[in-house]
Amino acid sequence: MAKEKKVEQITDMEVDFAQWFTDVCTKAELVDYSGIKGCFIMRPYGYAIWENIQKILDGMFKRDGHENVSMPMLIPESLLQKEKDHVEGFAPECAWVTVGGSEELPERLCIRPTSETLFCDHWSHIVHSWRDLPMLYNQWCSVLRWEKTTRPFLRGREFLWQEGHTLHATEEEARAETLHQLEVYADVCENYLAMPVIRGNKTDKEKFAGAENTYTIECMMHDKKALQSGTSHFFGDGFARQFGITFTDKDNQQKYPMQTSWGMSTRIIGGIIMTHGDNNGLVLPPRIAPIQVVVVPVAQHKPGVTEKAQALFEAIQAAGIRAKIDLSDNSMGWKCAQYEMKGVPLRVELGPKDIENGVCMAVRRDNGEKISVKLEEIAQRLPELLDAVQQGLYEKAKRNLDEHTYVAHSLEEAKELQEKNGGFIKTMWCGDLQCELDMKEKAGMSSRCIPFKQEHLDDVCACCGKPAKTMIYWGVAY
Amino acid sequence: MAKEKKVEQITDMEVDFAQWFTDVCTKAELVDYSGIKGCFIMRPYGYAIWENIQKILDGMFKRDGHENVSMPMLIPESLLQKEKDHVEGFAPECAWVTVGGSEELPERLCIRPTSETLFCDHWSHIVHSWRDLPMLYNQWCSVLRWEKTTRPFLRGREFLWQEGHTLHATEEEARAETLHQLEVYADVCENYLAMPVIRGNKTDKEKFAGAENTYTIECMMHDKKALQSGTSHFFGDGFARQFGITFTDKDNQQKYPMQTSWGMSTRIIGGIIMTHGDNNGLVLPPRIAPIQVVVVPVAQHKPGVTEKAQALFEAIQAAGIRAKIDLSDNSMGWKCAQYEMKGVPLRVELGPKDIENGVCMAVRRDNGEKISVKLEEIAQRLPELLDAVQQGLYEKAKRNLDEHTYVAHSLEEAKELQEKNGGFIKTMWCGDLQCELDMKEKAGMSSRCIPFKQEHLDDVCACCGKPAKTMIYWGVAY
User: Are residues A447 and A351 in the same domain?
Assistant: First the structure.
């Protein structure tokens, strides 16, 4: 007799989106809370998603000539202070080590909130000639930022990420690198995570501490809020000058190299949840799902069912699909709810009737569609169905983005649209900080980006009526 | 005209072994020093070795059903203190965070020196039934131990490692896991790193803080000192009791689960250096070498050489070998010295004469042997040669171990042998701590392990003359 295990319930997203999000994080067994606020435990299923994203990103970084390194996790306070804007941006949220062993340290050490200063210090030792350039480095690690309000994936005091750091002989090359890496992030988001993005420039107000330019990809969540999903920074030679990094160029002149950095973090898993999830739980894009197909036998106590299900499972694995079979004594209802909660893209059911007919039943997680698949065709049909789920998720997310992007010609109109619909509001902008502050204060929106794809919506700034310089996206952001 | 770049020189190991080691670490571009003592930078070439070892270990862990997770890097002081022996072992070498943002923290947080306490705290939330067991977890991360004397790879304040943590319903299963994981480490050392090992039990004095049993693999370095290369611990239910981890067993009784942990760290790279390196630099076992074959054209200015070398390089890559080609304008002498320093297992030279004869010249890093290889046979011959290097390195290391392992029947004899030859000294032992302390004080040796492969060397303890219980290995250790 099947054990009746309780099916976990989650809050409807329409009732309380924040609670729905937290429920998915815990009930899908992605995270657990630790004893320290904002320091989350990534459980095996959550970490496996991150490993899949890592594999894709790491492969792209290496394809483009980047090498992985490991820097210390501690930064002496004096080193952090070398670049003025950088320290102003990060010092207020650092965690400080003041005691080592049983001794008070002569200088406080901060746990890295980001590692520009460490890379620069290292480069100042090893870069001498144009032959040493470019330096194309990346690091996989965790960083700490002492945030006040925290949420799993979206805002942790500690979070996992990769931080790319590169150094180039020319500004042209460094700028090309910055833009290329943004394109890598956009590629991963759109083609692996099924998350459509808006690519653009951050305003001066929103750029990274110490950067000349910050590029961003912005995604829209189910609740129409924005998630900054990856950023890439051009530093010019600002850090190089402060850290004394110089090289002898081909023309025998001493020069300062040009620098970039770029990062994507476990925050993106929060983005996946809020882009694709539904009231039954997580919905994972097949390309990064730890389990792409789960085989669930129907009436497994009947003779032959378990064996046939096992054979089917093995055939699915042999087709190169990440698969699992559930032969436990939990009820069919519990199993279905459980794999829906975990967002497994396809559930494949096989019962005595199916075996008679030489078929199995594939159930799509994204839309509930049931498809009868001939057993001899699974090696071809299941990958096709996984592609269909991947494509379906992207299209649904793209519709959400397109249908909730609005044009406004005044601050009042922007405010009204945001209050009524949420979403992204496109307006023209004069480029002044004051208008950005006004939009924040009066309409509760921050600038998301000045998109690469510009449109001419109007001649004047929506906020102040002065001549417009660019089109800009506004939104409420995570 | 070839640029004459200076060939880096290193100290002979016979002159100053410690300096030789440091020279190899820096000149082979494995590490750089950071601004904090004992926190080393792993440069791309060093980190690539670690990535190769990671891939092998991670594959074995997953093959055996383990899952990766990510725990916080910070441990509240109160959590660390829950297990008495554990905190006594680790508290003296913790780094403490006392300030977060701009505020003094109400409780000090230590940067993890190891994560047993974090895993136990987590398990106390999620383990309820025998159905939840076993928990087979692993984590890749860095840990901090505030050591006084530090050396690259061998003893860092921060180092990278993996820490496996598992929880089982029965002692039998947990003990089997502990031993199995030791065997995994032995497999990696012997079959991938070409490092022969002695497997055994640590004495009570040398075991891990809080463990009931610690198993170890011990390797012998060039200088005849011992390197503990991987350890696996059985904890019994000691932590489970302190952390309140219980489960309902099949018989409906509440029980404490049994726990293990096991770790291997970047220290093993220090072991690779000191096992295989020579006075020309690093020597890498092919199975973990970032570059297995480097192609160096001879007289590359002559027409056709570069093109043929490039074609050869591509054919080698196509054969599934990690290869590199050096077409730089550095001199032949510099290139040869450089790839010897970096320990590349095979250098393949190709010049006009070779092209005429349809051959290339393969030079083995381990013994300098030059082998003429027909170009049409490289896909078969180079993998064979790489296997020969791998095998050659293992055999050389095994000879070093065998030839420098001695039997002693008294403390005086053990002391004399150690002073004269270094190496491992096998004796019988009564099992008393006092004899271990005597051996340390009088002969400068610590117990390395009570080997699984016991021999009967004598009836009595070499130190005190009382009846012997076991055979034991002594040595001077890193």
Answer: no
**Percent residues over pLDDT 70 in chain A:** 99
In angstroms, the CA B469 to CA B204 distance is 14
Q: How confident is the model at residue B102 (pLDDT cuts 50, 70, 90)?
A: confident
Query: How far, in Å, CA of A166 to CA of A173, rounded?
Result: 10
A328 and A439 fall within a common domain: no
Q: Would residue B53 count as lying in a domain?
A: yes
A351 and A417 belong to one structural domain: no
**Which residues in chain A are contacts of B80 at CB distance < 8 A?**
none
CA distance B359 to chain A (A): 31
* Torsion of the alpha carbons at A82, A87, A90 and A93, rounded to the nearest 10: 100
> In which band, very low, low, confident or very high, does the pLDDT at B83 lie, cut at 50, 70 and 90?
confident
* pLDDT confidence bin for A7, thresholds 50/70/90: low
pLDDT digits (tens, 9 = 90+) for A245-274: 999 999 999 999 999 999 999 999 999 999
Q: Which two tokens stand for residue A200?
A: 């653009």
Residue B435 lies in a domain: yes
CB B34 to CB A122 under 8 A?
Answer: yes
Q: Which CATH number does the domain housing residue B446 bear? A: 3.30.110.30
Please tell me the predicted confidence (pLDDT) of residue B362. Answer: 98
Residue type, B119: F
CB-hemisphere CA count at 13 Å for A261?
23
Tell me the one-letter amino acid at B429. W
Asked which of B252, B276, B300 is the last residue of a domain, the reply is B276
pLDDT given at position B8: 73
Q: Which of A27, A55, A70 to mutate to test the interface with B (most CBs of B within 10 A)?
A: A70
Domain around B410:
405-475
Q: Residues B360-374: what's their mean pLDDT?
A: 98
Does any domain span residue B23?
no
Q: Which residues in A lie closer than 8 A to residue B68 (C-beta atoms)?
A: 44, 47-48, 51
Q: Could you tell me if A433 and A363 lie in one domain?
A: no
- Residues of chain B contacting residue A59, judged by C-beta atoms under 8 Å apart: none
Which of B33, B41, B102, B115 is the best substitution to test chain A (most A C-beta atoms within 10 A)?
Answer: B41
pLDDT value at residue B9: 87
Provide the number of structural domains found in chain A: 3
Q: What is the CATH number of the domain that holds B219?
A: 3.30.930.10
Residues B101 and B220 in one domain: yes
Identify the domain boundary among B330, B355, B385. B385
Residue of B121, B71, B167, B62 lying closest to A47 (CA atoms): B71
pLDDT at A34: 95
Does the ipTM surpass 0.90?
Answer: yes
Put simply, the answer to whether A32 touches B108 (Cβ < 8 Å) is: no
Spell out the residues 6+ positions from residue A374 whose beta carbon is closer than 8 angstroms to its own. A358, A359, A381
- How many separate helices (H) and strands (E) can be counted in chain A? 14, 23
Given 3-state DSSP classes, what are the helix, strand and coil percentages for chain B, each rounded to the nearest 5?
A: 40, 30, 35
Q: Are A30 and A176 part of one and the same domain?
A: yes
Mean pLDDT, range B43-69, rounded to an integer: 98
Residue B454 DSSP one-character state: -
Same domain, A186 and A269: yes
Whether residue A305 lies inside any domain: the answer is yes
Q: What is the pLDDT of residues A78-100, one digit of tens each?
A: 999 998 888 888 989 999 999 99
Q: Which residues of A touch B122 (CB under 8 A)?
A: 32, 34, 41
pTM, 2 dp: 0.96
Chain A residues lying within 8 Å of B101, measured CB to CB: 92-95, 146, 148
Based on the fold, state whether residues A95 and A43 are members of the same structural domain. Answer: yes
Give the separation between CA B243 and CA B234, rounded to whole angstroms.
16
Q: What is the CATH number of the domain that holds A381?
A: 3.40.50.800
pLDDT in tens, A147-192: 999 999 999 999 999 999 999 999 999 999 999 999 999 999 999 9
